[in-house]
Fold this sequence. Notes:
The chain is mainly α. It has helices at residues 8-44, 47-69. It has a domain at 38-67. Helix content is 81%, strand content 0%.
Amino acid sequence: xxxxxxxxxxxxxxxxxxxxxxxxxxxxxxxxAVAAGIKxxxxxxxxxxxxxxxxxxxxxxxxYKLFKETGGSK
Length: 74
């Protein structure tokens, strides 16, 4: 078994893929939140309310998740 640490180059690739995945999740979640907000607003008849509220709540939850995943409590 080879217990030598990974070269920095491999770690950089791993970090890049990790953060690219987080960024793509952010974009998908925001797109879903905006689409759901628009659809529910039109159904209820209060157009800008949920279109603004859903993405803000989504951003808050994603930043909380990001803070936890990147070691905010070390």
